[in-house]
Amino acid sequence: MNRRAFLAAGIASLGTAYGLPALKTGPAPSRLSIAQVRRLVVERIDPLTGRCRYVADLGTRQVAQPVLWARRGERFDALVENALPQPTTVHFHGLTLPAAQDGAGFDPIPPGGRKRVRFEVKNRSGLYWFHPHPHGFTAEQVYSGLAGLLVVTDEDDDALDAGLALAQGNRLALAFADIRVEGGVLLPYAPSAEDCLHGWLGNRALANDRLDASWVVAPGWVRLQILNASNARGLLLAFRENEKLFPFHLLGTDGGLLAAPRELERVFLHSAERVDIAIDVSGRRALEAVSLAFDPRHHAHGAAPRHRHPARERYAPLAAAAVCQSTGNDDAGSKVQDRLAEGAELPLFALRVEGAAASLPPLPARLSGLAELSVAPDAPTRRLRLDFDEGTGFLIDQTPYASDETGFGVSRGAREVWEIKNSPISMPHPMHLHGFGFRVLRRQGTYGGARQLASEPGGRFATDLGVKDTVLVWPNETLWLALDFSLPREAAFRGPQRFMFHCHNLEHEDGMMMRNVTVV
Ligand code: C2O
Ligand code: CU
Ligand code: CU
């Protein structure tokens, strides 16, 4: 079977239709708890396209590309098995974990290897996710399909669902990613040097591994928890009905629910960011979710950086294609139409509304006890600079990543303000910190197009009101973040803990825009 047949079979059903998988899999139970997972297998299912997937082994059956659920306090204890031809890790993005369980790439699992991963979920309810993090291979593996969702629930989450009187099927957890499709063929990860500088963009959106996805929902409230799992593409998410924008309510962000909902017509969602939203579909027949056109502020041009990872030389790519190789002619082998420009309009998915009208309770006015953050005026400020240099590309404080560095040294329990300034000659960088959620205090220098959405005090967006683990910094923008480096008291967290701070444009991450953060 060739690539064309692969795409024709439909990406959703590729596991069974394609016939290659090592494991037979069945449908997922409605809420697959992380506590049920005995093994998590990471496998490649097609060497032509490089397509990969996660398979959760529950002992009695296997589930491909599982959406995992966890009650706060629940435990994950599973063997992660690497059936890829490359090293991998499983990083649980957004979770508060001891460094040894963080899957950050310090101790990758070699091809054919396995590792026991166990932890307790300590986070607030919200949408988290898991993906590979082996330095130098992260972008390729995530693009190839390795991005799993983890929905965490708690009492606030229960109260919200009850308050919305959600009909069965009206709560969805969704991951978007853009892929490159040419003539009905899914293209493997094969970025040119130019793609490695700006990020690998596709031309079609996958929603939960499906092209042209749509879901049937019942009239009433619909709750959507949405992840942008794209390597590099930022989205300006909106809902449309007959070309008119349809308002929705922001309920939460990366690290859980806001104190109170905010009504919006559009929201930026960059790589690795999440939003939790409610939308009233009563009396509607169909809504279309799109990424609206916007100015992506790509201002950096020039010599592309070199992405030479010593480890890369030792392992084959997932598909038979060269990765980040400069051909001397940047765009050889990659046509412009395969790479819809960032900021171009992109259809995402559709909701079809079917069923009898239900009575609609009012949106709960209070969602959680999350307080506005105040920071002691004497809190130490750490200044970080996001730089662009024609020779080296994008870096944090001019320093390319070195896995053995201490990086930023932080004392346990410290409260700090981080001032992050992006260069004017640059592009947007979604900056992510492992291990700790943070709060956005203030933004300055935001470009006009985005500033229109800065509805909150301090020049902030509505999404800045929540707990974040990934935050976009536009070119020329300065952000002030409040961080609290208290760690839960438990044996596994003793001793120095090494986490990471990096750009979640995955080409930038693999391209060294990453630093360690060591908590002592
Ligand atoms: Cu989502 Cu360091 O990763
Ligand atoms: Cu992370
Ligand atoms: Cu970046």
How does this model look, in words?
The chain is mainly β. Helix content is 8%, strand content 37%. The protein is built from seven helices and 35 strands. A seven-stranded mixed β-sheet has the order 15-14-11-17-23-20-21, covered by helices on one side. Strands 16, 18, 19, 22, 24 and 25 form a six-stranded mixed β-sheet that branches. A five-stranded mixed β-sheet has the order 1-5-10-9-7. A hairpin with a 4-residue loop joins strand 3 and strand 4. The longest helix has 10 residues. The chain is globular. The chain starts with a helix and ends with a strand. The structure holds CU-O-CU linkage and copper (II) ion (2 copies). CU-O-CU linkage (C2O) binds next to strand 7 and strand 34. The site of one copper (II) ion (CU) has 6 residues, from loops.
| Percent range for β-strand residues | 35-45%
Model regions low in confidence, pLDDT < 50 over at least 5 residues: 1-6, 12-21, 327-334
**Count the helices. How many?**
7
Strand order of the largest sheet: 15-14-11-17-23-20-21
How large, in whole angstroms, is the Cα Rg?
A: 22 Å
Instruction: Write down the overall mean pLDDT.
Output: 90
Bound molecules: CU-O-CU linkage, copper (II) ion
Termini gap: 53 Å
What class, by secondary structure content?
mainly beta
What characteristics describe this protein?
binds CU-O-CU linkage; 520 residues; 8% helix; 6-stranded mixed β-sheet; 7-stranded mixed β-sheet; binds copper (II) ion; 7 helices; mainly beta
